[in-house]
Write a structure and sequence with these properties.
Belongs to the 'GDSL' lipolytic enzyme family. Pfam families: Lipase_GDSL. Keywords: Hydrolase, Lipid degradation, Lipid metabolism, Membrane, Transmembrane, Transmembrane helix. With 396 residues, the chain is of the alpha/beta class. It has one domain: SGNH hydrolase (Rossmann fold), CATH 3.40.50.1110. Helix content is 38%, strand content 15%. It has a 6-stranded parallel sheet with strand order 3-4-2-5-6-7. The chain has a two-stranded antiparallel sheet with strand order 1-14. Strands 8-9 form a two-stranded antiparallel sheet. α6 runs antiparallel to α7. The protein is globular and about 50 Å long. The relative contact order is 0.15.
């Protein structure tokens, strides 16, 4: 289906070689962006010339998505994880910053989905599980969120719908006319895949030597999922690169001052494969519908990480969680088995051992924001009433 990964790429290779590959891939990506930019400029000029010599005038605009469909894991889940007594995101102190009570988000407040939806001018899409419990048969106006915390591309140790099952759920809504093909044609898909598959693999096998082959299988299936979403009729599919997994408070070193080098090495390998898969997919579509939201770069920028070590940033405790211990857990007497930091709004990037705080997600979103117009908005042509002679508008 896809070419095998070049034999020169190896998890066992020295870190320097991985950095070299990462830099090389980034340089290639920048070259592609330059070429695409030049092409668009030529397109604009040629269309402007055509408009001046034709009785028909066409306007090229950046049309924003009208709906957001979300698939993935806890970095995007806003309430699909079931609200049982044992459900962490439905327990205090989760949700303490937003909306003020536990809401099923794996943070003290807003997560990636909320910020992307806000950027698009949409309300955060309703969790699919909540929609099902409501018994409604009408669509939710701003889209639907199918992401489920702890799940992955493959089966994980969490008993929840893997990504393919989440995609199937949207297909079922379309077959029932809850959403139409027209709805999908004016929407965006956000897909997160941030490490649950690797955690499950390592817990089950504990063999780093097999990670390379697993990463190839994982990214291959992930690319199939992305293709499936697009072929349902969604014109733009944004998938996240993995965050620096070795910098999460759990995998980080015991001193919490350094990132785990092996974890970050796996992440860079995964992201390089993902970039290759996405490039291969886009090769088959002139519209290049698949884009990557680079969480790795956004996290390292927010934490000022260099050589697997965080530098000076706006966060006083960059690799320490605000909620320490067994966050959200109380013993049989009701005593908390966790403590919460005093300054969660400024000092801490991470909320718990895995998930960013609301301020952490805001920092990630701020790092991503400059790239979002080019990534998330699709140019469309339409024929409006005749504009003034020789008019041609390109709206950002």
């Amino acid at each position: 289906m896809y070419n095998n990964t070049p034999s020169s790429i190896s998890i066992a290779a020295p870190i320097r070689s991985f950095q070299d590959y990462y830099i090389m891939e980034k340089a290639n990506y920048n070259s592609i962006i330059i070429i695409i930019t030049m092409f668009l400029l030529c397109l604009i000029i040629s269309e402007a010339a055509a408009a001046s010599s034709s009785s028909s005038h066409y306007v090229l605009v950046e049309e924003g998505p009208k709906k957001l469909f979300v698939f993935g894991d806890s970095y995007a889940d806003t309430g699909n994880y079931p609200p049982t007594n044992a459900s962490t995101p439905w327990r205090q102190p989760y949700g303490i910053s937003f909306p003020g009570i536990p809401s099923g988000r794996w943070s003290d407040g807003r997560v990636l989905t909320d910020y992307i939806a806000s950027y698009l001018g949409l309300e955060s899409p309703r969790p699919y599980a909540m929609w099902k419990r409501s018994g409604e048969e009408e669509e939710d106006g701003d889209g639907m969120n199918f992401a489920y915390g702890g799940t992955g591309v493959f089966e994980t140790r969490v008993d929840g719908p893997k990504m393919g099952t989440q995609i199937k759920s949207l297909g079922q809504l379309v077959s029932r006319n809850v959403y139409t093909r027209q709805d999908l044609s004016s929407s965006l898909a956000l897909v997160t895949s941030v490490g649950n598959d690797y955690l499950t693999f390592l817990l089950d096998h504990g063999n780093l030597k097999q990670v390379e082959g697993f990463a190839e299988n994982l990214t291959r299936q992930l690319s199939e999922n992305l293709k499936r979403i697009h072929e349902m009729g969604i014109p733009k599919v944004a998938v996240t690169a993995m965050e620096p997994m070795g910098c999460l408070p759990g995998p980080a070193s015991s001193s919490s001052s350094n990132c785990n080098k092996i974890g970050n090495r796996i992440t860079r390998f995964h992201n390089q494969l993902l970039r290759q898969r996405v490039d291969q997919l886009n090769h088959h579509y002139s519209s290049r519908p698949f884009v990557i939201l680079d969480l790795y770069a956004a996290f390292t920028s927010a934490l000022n990480i260099r050589d697997d070590r965080p530098g000076k940033s706006s966060f006083e405790e960059p690799l320490m969680p605000c909620c320490r211990g067994m966050c959200g857990v109380v013993d049989e007497r009701g005593n908390k088995e966790y403590t919460v930091c005093d300054d969660r709004r400024k000092a801490f990037f991470f909320w718990d051992a895995v998930h960013p705080s609301q301020q952490g997600w805001l920092a990630v979103y701020s790092a991503l924001k400059p790239s979002l117009p080019a990534l998330l908005f699709s140019p469309h042509y339409y024929s409006p009433p005749p504009p003034p002679p020789h008019a041609f508008h390109y709206l950002i």
